[in-house]
Every structure is written in structure tokens, then in C-alpha cells.
Amino acid sequence: MKLFFFLALFFLILRYPRLSVGYAAAGLHSWFECMVPALLPFMILSGIMIRQNLTARFAKVLSPVLKPLYRMDDNCIYCILLGFFCGFPMGAKTVAELYGRKQLSKRDSSLLLAFCNNIGPVYFLNFLLPAIGLQKPVQIALCLFGMYGIPLLYGIFLRCSGFLLPEENGFSTKCPAAPAQPFLESLDDAMQSGISAVTTLGGYMILFNLLNLIPHVFLQAAGGSEKAALLMGCLLEITGGVARCGTKLPFFVLGMMPLGGLSCIAQTASMIKDTDLSIKAYVIHKSIQTVCSFGYYFLLRSFLF
Predict the structure, then answer these.
(1) Is the pTM of this model over 0.70?
(2) Which residue among 26, 271, 274, 278 sits deepest, i.e. has the most Cβ atoms within 10 Å of its Cβ?
(3) Can you give the pLDDT at residue 55?
């Protein structure tokens, strides 16, 4: 089956070269225009702070607000802040790096990964909402809660219920921190890590945008609707999918944001591949949040669409 899939993809690329180049170029454009300038500086700065053991002190600003809700230490609060404010996949990358340096327990890392790996507000407000035609203040406020309120509430639910979280036995909630690196060594390591991570993300965005070739060709041959191809595009790679959808499928686009499509799942798996954190549990948690998101927007459809 795998061999058939790759043979079919090779054939389609050769059969439709212009279409293939267009899809791949769209992924490259989205990566270069959105991901590199928005994410790489945060990846480098966060990498330096992690290696200098500065994350807990940085998070103390909002600790009085978030600590009572989540009952977590300052390193965990740091992951929440970056996961919500710096954009996907900074949440997963930050959790993986702090967990690798033994500054987070496995249970806390699994909990954080489940809800703090989200699309960033800069992309959400400046690109996504205008692209789907939602720019009124009431619409923006409702969409902001749907995008960020649902995962924040889900995080509180996980902290209280322990749903799909590993047992605490064998893991300390306050693990001993690795020693801080010299500054120039931290800078060099953070630079290499950030460039490697953002380059990998670019590869995933190009590949999963290229995979749009398959539904495009087969749906067209089968007489399928344009909307079906657009839906498949969002499922494969959400950034390129949103650009192609425009104002045609706002309900579906908003509902899909927590999951982010197959490309986002693959990118998250890449961020945590050197840890024993579970990508399967991550997908389950994100799927639950996606269902909640669809339910939320369905109830508010008369105010939004």
C-alpha cells in the first residue's frame, strides 16, 4: 500500500508538473513569509533562555495568575506562555527542550503538550480571521475565546482529571535542573536548534501542500466538488488550506484550528521525537479540543457566519 501511494505520487508529479510546482511553491511561500520571521527569533531567544536556566524567572510575571489555575511551577507557566503567544509549534518545542533538560516531569510535560501547542495570535488575528472574512469586534472576540479559551479550559480539566496522563510515580514534579551553559555556547546551540527546527517545518509544509495534488486530481476526475478539495487541503496543511479557502468555509477552518491538520501533527512529532512523550495521546487530546471547537462555533453560528 505504501509503495502504491509513493508510485502514484511520483506519477502525478510527473503528469502534472505545473500544478505540483504551484502547490509546493505555496508551501514554500507560507513558510518563508509566515513561519521564518514569526518563529525563528522566538526559537533562538527561547533556546538561549532554556540553556541559561532563565525560564522560571521569566514566567514569574504571570505566575500569580496562572499558578492557582494549573497548580504548576514556573517552568510550566513558561511553556504555557510561549505555546499560546509565540505560535505553533513553539509549545511542543519548548516542552521537549525543558523535559530533555529535566526541568519538567513527564506528567507535566504530557499535560502541557496536550493544550499549549497552538496557532499564534499574530497569525490568527492578522491572517486567518481576515482571510475568512471575520473582522467585526464581536466576531474577533468570540473567535479568540474559541481559539484560546477552549484549550485553556481543557488544560484545567486535564490537571483536575489526569485524563490520559502518565502516572506521577517515578517522576518528580520538581526535577533537578541541568547546569546553565556558558552564554556563547547557549547562543550557538540555540541558533543551530532554531534553524534546524524551522527548516524541518518548512519541509513539512512543502510536502503536505504538495499532497494536495492527490485530492485535486482524483476529485476532479470523479466530478467532486471544489469544497471537498478545499476541505482536504485544510486537513493536510492548514496554512495553505486557509489561503485557498478564503471566505468559502469559515466554520470548518475555525473548527479545525486546534488540530491544525496532518502537517501540524507531523511537525509536533518531529519536535518531540527525542523524548518519550506520546504523539498518540497528543492527537487524542487535540481531537477532543477540535470536537469542542466545532460545537462552540456551531452554537454561535448565527453571530459569526
Answers:
(1) yes
(2) 271
(3) 92
